[in-house]
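INFO batch 0412 | record 1 of 1 | parsing
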Amino acid sequence: MFKTRMNADMALELFLASFEPLTGSENLNVEKCDGRVSAEDITAKTDVPHYRRAAMDGFAVKASDTLGGGSTSPVILKTGDSIGKGSCVRVHTGSAVPEGADAVVMVEDTQTHGGIVEVFTQVHPLKNVGEIGEDIRKGEMIIKRGKLLRPCDIGVIASLGIREIKVFRKPVVAIIPTGEELIPKGDALPGIGEVYETNGLMTELYIRKWGGVPGLHDIVTDNPGMIKSAIKANLDADMIIICGGTSVGKRDFVPGVVASLGKLVVHGVGISPGKPTALGIINGKPVICMPGYPVAGIVALYWFGKEALRKLGNMPREYETTVLAVLSEKIASRTGFKTFARVRLENGHAVPLATSGAGILSSVSKADGFVVIPENIEGYEKGETVEVKLID
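INFO prediction complete | emitting tokens
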């Protein structure tokens, strides 16, 4: 089918090495930075907390005044507005610990009688006291450039009083669906030989989910001139994904058009399904040519699209969500191909749904994940424990 077929890992490595990450950034209010990537190191300009604070509701005391306190022999202290020998001050969680106090007795360990407090425990210095800089020290780096920001990270940034930070801009991805047989989604039923366009829609949703800004182009027919025009019209995007037209049939013009406009890095990859995938570079921008069969397209998008988007957007490599399960049936595969077998999880078992059939889109919808079989083995036997990569 193809003159060459490149190993899946080698193809990914070669493709990622052929373009550079984006350098553009923007300043955003911190509340809008969830899921964004920091474009700068962030250093604390103050201590957190910047004052000694009570960690519990209770009474601020000199720890030495509680010596001998116990459940049957309480220490008697006087309440007041300042700390002196034998006195204490009422405090609440987060309030300042008054000068002279070095500990807080929890309210549960006391009984109050007018201006007198019985303390039924003994505390040591700094008990239930948050010291200055206990959380963050002034000058400490709290966020490194290139960190994917989570709500907890944003909370830390906000605790320093920072209202705006610099983040890398999101990659803009142009998505071009191609095919004579495709018709737009709508009320009209497809005729014989026609199908609704879905690859572009799925790609659009995944790009947005993975942190990009997708732009879905109208359907382009299988015509080299029209495909070329569509690509040229979208060269302002950071990456282009073309759906369909990647094989070697009479109407598969996409790889040739990409080669005429730039460089075709790879055409033919050892992934199953997804062998006809093509990868190219035009004006320094990555171009992914996904097979038209939906499952093959999704596999190519997962293997190449997600990683290309990650590099463009300066996103750190993510750990995939995986679970271990026992195979309920044997899964066969071809040596030389990294095989993505669809499985459903059921009571600790991985139930194969389809190991072939690149056009059976519903098999992905019904699946919980993929079992990825390496190129050098001929599948897994029933009863083997396998790793299931969950589908986003």
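INFO post-check: Residues 322-390 form a domain with the Beta-clip fold (CATH 2.40.340.10).
INFO record closed
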